[in-house]
Structure formats: C-alpha cells, structure tokens
Amino acid sequence: MKKSILIFYFLLLYALLEMFWWGTVVIRLQPERMAMIMGEGAVFLFLLGVGAYFIHASIKKEDKLHEQQQNFLLSVTHELKSPLAAIKLSLQTIVKRDLERQMQLSLINNSLKDIERLDDLVENMLLATKIESKTYSFPKEDFDFSDLVTKITDRLQVHSCGCEQIIKSHIQQGINIEGDKFALSSVVTNLVENAVKYSGPCAEITVELCQNGGKPRLTVADKGLGIPDSEKMHIFDKFYRVGDENVRKSKGTGLGLFIVKEVLQNHDADISVKDNVPHGAIFEVTFN
User: Which CATH code of 3.30.310.80, 3.30.565.10, 3.40.50.150, 1.20.1050.10 fits the domain covering 141-287?
Assistant: First the structure.
C-alpha cells in the first residue's frame, strides 16, 4: 500500500512539473495569452488538488481496512487456538490419568464451555458475512425476550469470573417481542461479552430489561475504562476496535458491535452508548 502512495505522489509531481513547463514555454512564445494560461492553469490546479485529495483519502481508507482485516485474522486465530488448546488439554488429562468421577465431570464441563465459546465465534462470523452480503432474511417470530436474556446472562455468568457472581441482572419477566430470535440472541451475547471483556477481573456488570413507556428496553452497563467520545461514532464499524492495535490486550474480532448495529436496524430498534459514572460504558437498546 505504501508503494501505491509513493507512485501516486510521483505521478502527481510529474503532472505539476509538466504543466508548469508547458505553461512557461507557451507564455514565452505567445506572451499575450498569459492571462488565459494562468486562468486555465488555476482551474487545472484546483481540479487536480480535489482529485488528489479524494484519491489520497481512498488509498488511506483502503490501507486502514487492510490493516483491520489483518488484525481480524490474527484475533480470530488467537480466539480459535485458546479454547482448542484448553479442550485438548482437558481431554488428554482425562485419557492419560485415572481421575475421580467429579474431576472428570469438571474437565468435561470446562470443555463444553470452551465449545460454546467457539460456537459463538463461528456464529458471529457467519452472521456478519450473511448480513454484509445481504443474504440473511431475518425471519421473525413472537418469542419471550425476557427468557432469552435470562438464559444468556446465566450462561455467560460461568465464563465471567470463577465462582463469583459479577453479572447482576434485573430482568422484568413476560416481555415478548417479534423478531429474529437467533440474531437477537447474538445481540445480547455480544453486548454482555463486550462488557465482560473490557471490564477488570470480576468487575460488576449490570444487565437490565424492562418496559419503558410500553417499549422493551435492554441496558448493559460495565465499569471498565469506558469509550472516548472521539471513538463512539466508530465502534459500530466492521473490524473497528477501541484503542491502539499495537498495545491492546483484550481479545476480540471487531465484529460484535457491527452485528449488533445491523441486527437492530433490521428490527426498528435504536442503540445508544453513554458514559457510566464514575467510569465504564452503558449500552441502551430500545425497541420501537
């Protein structure tokens, strides 16, 4: 990509030098045409500058997208290898050692949790691909959203912090909505997993579902580092992740919030992000 930028600037410089050289030659031969040449030269410079600006912006955007895609591939590789390594170690331990029944069950349960994590990752990538290619139809049905949120928070509770309960849920029962159950489960999972991921170890996370003016409202609040105002408009972009890629420690693919935005748009729902006090972020989803 840097080579393309260098070639572009070389051609731009060559065009400018050629223009000034030919302009000088014509003025020397026909001095009376200087005003016309100066005017046409100014128009040419203006158009060349505008074109150069947009081409440069396009190249930089492509370069940034290429970098994000590379980071995505590295993140996916890491996300796949970690649970696979844990599953392999657990199974090898069961096979090679004569363990008590309780210890075997514990290792098997840990492996099942890692398999669920892998399943979530694969489903995220498939859903993002289908959404972007516009091949996903969002089949809708009437279902119990309260039950869905409860099951997801209970499942992620185990992944969050050993034996401590860090996800505090306040879920009003009996809230039904019409929508794509599979896609909306991905929305809830991504929001809660993001809150866990970007919070400190065993930090408190709050998940609340209630009726607000007759409209279902889901709120996920964490006490992590929060999101700078300058990045709030970008966090729903595909592959975008908050912070510097070179020093980031948190795992992720940059697909979660992209999926959240796209799914909610197809359900006539709104999402907003604001600062938590004293620190952290609050994501609020309102169904219309």
Answer: 3.30.565.10
Contact 62, 241 (CB under 8 A): no
What pTM was estimated for this model as a whole?
0.68
Q: Which residues contact 253 (CB under 8 A, 6 or more apart)?
A: 72, 75, 76, 79, 121, 124, 125, 239
What pLDDT, in 10s, does the model give residues 165-213?
488 889 999 999 999 999 999 999 999 988 888 877 777 889 999 998 8
